């Protein structure tokens, strides 16, 4: 799949073999890898770093090139990738459920039936892809990325795997010949229908040079209808001997025992033996034909018929020679072997026979498909996977997945890479999927089906799925649905995937990133809920600081709005008592202080004053904010219609005020006055102190008023 | 391989670095023209310039994106001896803070604002890389003064204040707990908000003057050092992406073919392992060669003398680029290096046993307490100096770029054997009429 070749980028910068010219001019090549799809970014950079402080004013156009290991799957290919995921997922669920059952259940008849069913689902789906890709219809996205022939190759390999390794339960020990022949006849149709049509149109077909090969191959392939038709034609052959022999052959072909017609293998074997006896009788009859009568006007019909009888007799040398003559390959020999030479051949016997045949008729090393077939016939699943990966990483991944469950390959890593063979192929397929970021769901599904290493790779991919919190790339505003508190779109999908595969660390990081994005949009309320979801208390602290910063830079109005947005979350946090201490105080302070300002805006002075007092009574305000809150108290102290504070409350205010003065005189002014200094947009602490002096005066007056009013009272 | 895109006219001069953001949706590029450009990928898979500004007073050497949980932040290192921190802000905020003339033509929805200037380096800064996010908002830099500096942002979200947590002399830093360690943590307010308001040019001019003055003071060629040391050397860093081992970084500097794996520690940073390209050996605090039967025992002195001899004839062994692969659940680490000797090497590094006390690593007698490494791949295909190596996010694909004009990709095949996985070049194809040759098998 991934071509190990050289890609020449366009437009080229130099002629072939002339890169050194660029190097001499002080330039070289460099690259960067894209996190979303492994795209290679290529650019030309300066070879020797320049210390020059002059910006060179050249007008050279410097391009950036992008190249990828794999082409993004086209629509027809994507169909295969997305739809076979459903089967793959069903298979993973089956494996998971096996873990909860008794050991060995995976190899039980019940389970094997299900595995077989899913494998056949794969086969049927590839067949559909093949049919679809073979249709001569105009395509929206131009030419096909993979030809119909490519899918046909996948089809033949996968279905052969099912025939050889996933027999119907109960038939593991049954002869395999019929099934193999069906496979061969389905995928490698010989002799061709056209040839048959052409011959059947002739009055004396035996005069055509293709007649005998056609008939022989029909019989070799067990195509009784075609064989019988042309054998019937031979009854009109001028040779009487041949006519008579033909009339013996026809019932033999008609009555060749087929396993499927027997319920008990013993009966099949018995029928085979009796049938074999009849073939022997035919041979004796043939041998009685005198040498001189064995020819017609064209050729030696006797030898041709002898080949056919030789096949029926199950003679290895004849089968092999005939196949060679017919231009058939090792597959045909191996399958014919399982029908004629050893009709009771079991699956496990095939490896030995295939090895023998392959040693004389090797597979075509340039044809990955043929190599996969050969490895499957030879009982070498590891080899088969290797060649399958050369054909299509889809094939090796899905074959490997099933092979491990059937214990055909080792589930343990065979080297210190820590990756089993199955995982290796599944991960290599996942890496191919990763070349299209839009396929991230499928990519991580495959990766998470692997052991630790694969899962950790999936984490990296999942973390980098763009959350698309912003409605449009060009706009930094957050999607209104997300703003409304809904987890929608990609964020929702990513969250769901994290839950599904229990990737809490990933989920938390994603929440932290989402919170950060929301903070930069000043959507503090939602940001806080994401921080809480990520249990990111540090981040939560930063958001609180940001909200307080809003007060410092823009005053109470905006601050109130932002702070009240985080109030519900704070309420929730307090209820769950998830976090404690100073930090919680700061959160509560922000909310209470915002509520205070809201009350002030609404002119609910009595309530506002009481809230202000609560801030000091509960001791939730950070010391750096005392001065600011005290300054806020001035308007209440001076409120003419009534006294808003009790005398003890006013005393507490005075106490805090004096604390600040004392500490400031001791040199700790920065701790107490820094915020106020910034709020009043001043540069010096002195102005802050001056501001506090007005609080002191207001307090003094308040005490005076208070005394007077109490004095008058009862 | 197939070509998937092209930006015809990305910069007006040679590009010096390009770096993708966390998601691969944005791209920061910088150039000899001293400008940084930020590109954004739109829905139609087209890269559009999001912002473009003059960033430094000399060429920009490297760019690094901070993890998105800290916001949209990049750091740039430059030949003007500074590292700058930039943050993306929405346009309304940017208007009040940035001198618009600094930026390219208008129409951008966001602006990148300078937040801090780190100007401790006594040489050109060659690399900058943000630490993995679990260590907080930190970054490491390396400059031609051979010092590795680690900074931590001490004031989020304003990004104005960065603390120099560590300053380590890579060359003289001995193996094990280091006497050459010159850590001196101090806090510097590098760019106050008022400074950010000032025009960038003004601020930079003074910094450059300071840098030039320092140059005259410190950069007189030291005796025995070749004058073109800067051009022949290599300065590179890469963080270990894992959280488990604490803050670990690999760094190389100067003209030696040596890189060091350093454990950063608030009290005492230490070299865990030294990897020498000259003999493909690794050695740690106990002076025995590890995992390499034929390698002679080496200690710091040996390493120094060999580097001196290298200096004498050529600088061929300098490591120009190092990349620490994400371990992704593996029991070992992979570190790739590219050097002026034309080699791309992959080191398989095994951490010491977990109960090993780093401070006492030198006294520890258990072999498994030490970090060990072997070179698992050594490719010479570039046949000329290699300038860049980089891992993909899963540590499964390595890319390397060399003076042969090729960017080569490498992948592990079964049995953990690393093999070529394709390459790209900017030379004209020999047979332009022929489509790319496919599936040339290179397997044995």
Automatic annotation (TrEMBL), chain A:
Tell me where on the tree of life, at the top rank, the source sits.
Eukaryota
Q: Which GO terms describe its cellular component?
A: nuclear membrane; nuclear pore outer ring
Q: What UniProt keywords are attached to this protein's entry?
A: Membrane, mRNA transport, Nuclear pore complex, Nucleus, Protein transport, Translocation, Transport
- Which GO terms of the molecular function aspect are on file? structural constituent of nuclear pore
Q: Which GO terms describe its biological process?
A: mRNA export from nucleus; positive regulation of DNA-templated transcription; protein import into nucleus
Keyword set includes Methyltransferase: no
Where does this chain mainly localize? nucleus
Q: Please indicate if the UniProt record lists Protein transport as a keyword.
A: yes
Q: Which InterPro entries match?
A: Nucleoporin_Nup85 (IPR011502)
Pfam families linked to this entry: Nucleopor_Nup85 (PF07575)
The listed locations are:
Nucleus, Nuclear pore complex
- Subunit record text: Component of the nuclear pore complex (NPC).
Similarity comment: Belongs to the nucleoporin Nup85 family.
Entries under PANTHER family matching the protein: FROUNT PROTEIN-RELATED, NUCLEAR PORE COMPLEX PROTEIN NUP85
Entry function: Functions as a component of the nuclear pore complex (NPC).
Name under which the protein is recorded: Nuclear pore complex protein Nup85
Organism, by scientific name, is Hypholoma sublateritium (strain FD-334 SS-4)
From TrEMBL, chain B:
| Predominant location | nucleus
Keyword presence, Protein transport: yes
List localization entries.
Answer: Nucleus, Nuclear pore complex
Where does the record place its WD repeats? 8-49, 53-96, 312-357, 379-420
Keywords of this entry: mRNA transport, Nuclear pore complex, Nucleus, Protein transport, Repeat, Translocation, Transport, WD repeat
- Positions of the region Disordered? 290-316, 421-444
* A Pfam entry, by short name: WD40
Gene Ontology BP terms: cellular response to amino acid starvation; mRNA transport; positive regulation of TORC1 signaling; protein transport
Under SMART domains, the record lists: WD40
Q: Which residues cross the membrane?
A: none
The terms describing its cellular component in GO are:
nuclear pore outer ring; Seh1-associated complex
Gene Ontology MF terms: structural molecule activity
Give the source's domain of life in one word.
Answer: Eukaryota
- Protein family membership: Belongs to the WD repeat SEC13 family.
According to UniProt, the name of this protein is Anaphase-promoting complex subunit 4 WD40 domain-containing protein
């Amino acid at each position: 799949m991934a071509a190990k070749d050289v890609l020449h980028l366009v437009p080229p910068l130099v002629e072939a073999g002339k890169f050194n010219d660029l190097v001499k001019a002080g330039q070289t090549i460099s690259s960067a890898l894209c996190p979303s799809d492994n795209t290679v970014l290529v650019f030309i950079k300066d070879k020797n770093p320049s210390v020059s402080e002059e910006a060179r004013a050249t007008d050279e156009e410097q391009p950036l090139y992008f190249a990828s290991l794999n082409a993004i799957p086209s629509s027809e290919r994507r169909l295969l990738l997305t739809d076979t995921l459903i089967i793959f997922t069903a298979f993973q669920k089956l494996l998971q459920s096996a873990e909860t059952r008794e050991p060995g259940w995976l190899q039980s008849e019940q389970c094997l039936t299900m595995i077989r069913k899913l494998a056949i689902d794969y086969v049927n789906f590839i067949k559909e892809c093949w049919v679809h890709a073979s249709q001569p219809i105009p395509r929206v996205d131009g030419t096909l990325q993979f030809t119909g022939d490519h899918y046909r190759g996948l089809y033949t390999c996968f279905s052969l795997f099912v025939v050889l390794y996933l027999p119907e339960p109960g038939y593991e020990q049954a002869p395999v010949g019929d099934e193999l022949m069906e496979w061969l006849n389905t995928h490698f149709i010989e002799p061709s229908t056209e040839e048959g049509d052409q011959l059947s149109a002739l009055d004396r077909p035996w005069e055509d040079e293709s007649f005998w090969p056609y008939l022989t191959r029909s019989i070799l392939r067990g195509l009784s209808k075609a064989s019988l038709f042309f054998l019937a034609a031979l009854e009109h052959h001028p040779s009487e001997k041949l006519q008579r022999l033909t009339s013996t052959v026809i019932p033999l072909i008609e009555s060749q025992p087929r396993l499927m017609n027997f319920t008990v293998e013993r009966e099949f074997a018995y029928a085979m033996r009796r049938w074999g006896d009849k073939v022997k009788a035919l041979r004796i009859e043939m041998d009685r034909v005198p040498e001189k009568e064995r020819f017609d006007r064209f050729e030696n019909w006797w030898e041709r018929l002898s080949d056919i009888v030789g096949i029926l007799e199950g003679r290895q040398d004849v089968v092999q020679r005939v196949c060679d003559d017919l231009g058939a390959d090792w597959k045909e020999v191996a399958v014919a072997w399982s029908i004629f030479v050893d009709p009771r051949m079991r699956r496990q016997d095939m490896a030995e026979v295939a090895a023998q045949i392959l040693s004389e008729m090797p597979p075509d090393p340039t044809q990955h498909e043929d190599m996969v077939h050969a490895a499957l016939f030879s009982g070498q699943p590891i080899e088969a996977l290797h060649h399958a990966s050369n054909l299509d990483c889809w094939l090796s991944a899905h074959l490997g997945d099933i092979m491990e469950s059937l214990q055909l390959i080792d589930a343990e890593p065979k080297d210190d890479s820590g990756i089993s063979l199955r995982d290796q192929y599944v991960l290599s397929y996942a890496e191919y999927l990763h070349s299209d970021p839009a396929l991230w769901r499928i990519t991580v599904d495959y990766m998470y089906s692997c052991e630790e290493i694969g899962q950790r790779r999936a984490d990296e991919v999942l973390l980098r799925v763009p959350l698309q919190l912003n409605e449009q790339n060009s706009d930094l505003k957050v999607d209104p649905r997300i703003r409304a508190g809904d987890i929608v779109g990609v964020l929702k999908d990513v969250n769901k995937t994290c839950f599904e595969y229990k990737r809490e660390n990933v989920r938390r990081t994603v929440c932290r990133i989402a919170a950060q994005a929301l903070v930069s949009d000043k959507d503090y309320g939602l940001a806080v809920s994401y921080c809480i979801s990520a249990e990111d208390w540090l981040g939560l602290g930063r958001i609180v600081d940001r909200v307080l910063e809003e007060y410092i830079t823009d005053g109470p109005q905006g601050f109130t709005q932002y702070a009240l947005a985080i109030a519900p979350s704070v309420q929730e946090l307090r209820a769950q008592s998830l976090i404690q201490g100073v930090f919680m105080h700061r959160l509560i302070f922000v909310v209470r202080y915002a509520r205070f300002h809201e009350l002030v805006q609404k002119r609910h002075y009595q309530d506002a004053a009481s809230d202000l007092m609560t801030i000091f009574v509960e001791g939730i305000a950070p010391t750096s904010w005392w001065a600011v809150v005290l300054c806020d108290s001035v308007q209440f102290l001076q409120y003419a219609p009534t006294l808003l504070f009790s005398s003890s409350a006013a005393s507490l205010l005075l106490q805090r005020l004096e604390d600040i003065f004392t500490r400031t005189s001791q040199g700790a002014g920065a701790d107490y006055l820094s915020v106020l200094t910034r709020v009043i947009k001043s540069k010096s602490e002195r102005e802050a102190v001056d501001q506090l002096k007005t609080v002191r005066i207001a307090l003094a007056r308040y005490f005076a008023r208070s005394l007077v009013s109490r004095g008058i009272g009862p | 391989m197939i070509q998937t895109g092209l930006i015809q006219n990305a910069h007006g001069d040679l590009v010096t670095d390009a770096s993708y953001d966390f998601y691969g949706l944005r791209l920061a590029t910088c150039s000899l023209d001293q400008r940084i450009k930020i590109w954004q990928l739109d829905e139609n898979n087209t890269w559009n310039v999001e912002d473009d500004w003059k960033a430094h007073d000399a060429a920009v050497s490297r760019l690094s994106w901070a993890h998105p949980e800290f916001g949209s932040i990049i750091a740039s290192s430059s030949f003007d001896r500074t590292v700058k921190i930039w943050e993306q802000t929405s346009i309304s905020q940017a208007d009040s803070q940035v001198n618009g003339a600094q930026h390219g033509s208008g129409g951008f929805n966001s602006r990148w604002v300078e937040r801090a200037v780190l100007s401790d380096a006594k040489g050109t800064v060659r690399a900058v890389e943000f630490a993995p996010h679990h260590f907080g908002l930190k970054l490491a830099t390396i400059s031609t003064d051979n010092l590795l500096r680690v900074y931590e942002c001490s004031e989020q979200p304003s990004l104005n204040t960065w603390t120099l947590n560590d300053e380590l002399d890579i060359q003289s830093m001995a193996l094990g707990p280091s006497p050459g360690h010159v850590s001196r943590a101090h806090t510097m307010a590098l760019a106050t908000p008022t400074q950010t308001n000032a025009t960038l040019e003004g601020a930079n001019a003074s910094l450059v003057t300071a840098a030039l003055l320092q140059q005259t003071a410190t950069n007189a060629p030291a005796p025995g050092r070749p004058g073109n040391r800067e051009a022949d050397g290599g300065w590179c860093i890469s963080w270990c992406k894992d959280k488990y081992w604490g803050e670990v970084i690999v760094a190389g500097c100067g003209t030696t073919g040596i890189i060091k794996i350093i454990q950063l520690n608030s009290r005492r940073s230490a070299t865990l392992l030294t990897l020498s390209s000259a003999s493909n050996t690794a050695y740690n605090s106990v002076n025995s060669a590890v995992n390499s039967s034929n390698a002679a025992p080496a200690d710091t002195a040996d390493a120094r003398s060999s580097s001196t001899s290298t200096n004498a004839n050529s600088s061929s062994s300098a490591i120009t680029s190092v990349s620490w692969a994400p371990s992704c659940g593996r029991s070992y680490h992979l570190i790739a290096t590219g050097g002026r000797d034309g080699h791309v090497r992959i080191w398989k590094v095994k951490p010491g046993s977990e109960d090993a006390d780093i401070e006492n690593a030198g006294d520890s007698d258990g072999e498994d307490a030490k970090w060990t490494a072997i070179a698992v791949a050594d490719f010479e295909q570039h046949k000329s100096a290699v300038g860049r190596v980089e891992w993909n996010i899963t540590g499964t694909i390595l890319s390397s770029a060399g003076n042969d004009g090729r960017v080569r990709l490498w992948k592990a095949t079964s049995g953990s054997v690393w093999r070529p996985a394709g390459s790209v070049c900017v030379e004209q194809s020999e047979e332009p009429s022929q489509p790319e040759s496919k599936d040339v098998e290179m397997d044995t």
